[in-house]
Amino acid sequence: MTSFHDQVIQILPKLRIQALSLTRNRSAAEDLVQDAVCNALAAQDSFIPGTNFSAWMHRILRNRFISDLRKRRETTDIEDVPASSFASNATHEDSLALKDLSMALSRLPADQREALVMVVVQGMSYEALAEATGCAVGTAKSRVFRARRQLEAWMTGDLPANDKLRVKVAALRATLDDRRRKGLKSDDLFTF
Amino acid sequence: MTGGKDGVPEKSRQDKTSSDSDNPFDIWLKRGLHQLFDDVANEPIPDELLRLIEEDRDERSS
Fold this sequence. Notes:
The structure holds 2 protein chains of 2 kinds.
Chain A: H1 4-23, H2 26-42, H3 53-72, H4 95-107, H5 110-120, H6 126-133, H7 137-155, H8 164-182
Helix pairs in contact in A: 1-2, 1-3, 1-5, 2-3, 3-6, 5-7, 6-7
Chain B: H1 24-42, H2 47-61
C-alpha cells in the first residue's frame, strides 16, 4: 500500500493546478501548495487510510486558500493581477487568443474557475469534484457549466458593447496591432 | 477544427455540459486550458517542498 507521504508527493502536480486555478498567480500557487502540504502533514493522523486521499488533500488546499483569503480580506480583481499570470510562453499564432482566455479566466469566480480546471485539465469526474470541493454533485456540474458558458460569451463576443473586459481586450488588440506594425515588442502590455 | 476570429471558435448552438462535449468552443477551451496549465503540472517539484515531506516521513518512522 502506498504510504501517506508517497501519496502526498504523487498528488503535488494536481495540487499545483488547483492552486493556480484559485490564486491566478504562479508564485502564490507555489506558496499555497506548500502551506497545504504543511497542513496535511500536521493533520495526517486524521486521514483514514483507504478513504479518498485525493479529495481529502484537495479539500485541505481549498480550505487553506479560503482561510488565507479571509485573513488578507483580499478584494483582488483583474486590475490587480497580471494577465500573464496563468502562464504561458506561447509564441504560436493563437497566443493572443490564449492571453484573452487567461484574462477571461481571471474574471470568473474562483469556485467556477477551480471547478472548470479540475474537470477539463485534470479530467476529474463531477462526483470527484464534488467530494474534493465539499459540495453537491449538482453544484459541481453547475459551476463547470456556468464557467464554460460565461467564457464562451466573453470569448465569442456575445456581450453588450459596453462590457468592460471586451472593451479592454479590444483596446489591447489595437495596441498590439499598432506595435506589431511598428516592429515593437509587446510583452510589457501584459504586466499591468 | 476551424477557428473563428483570432482563433476563437464561433459560438455554437449546442449546449452540452459533459467534459467530453463536442461543442467547438468546448474543444477549443480544453486545448487552451491545457496550454495554460500543463506546464505548471510538469514543472519539477521544488527541493524545499520535497525535503519538508521527507523530513516528516523520517520523523514519523523514527
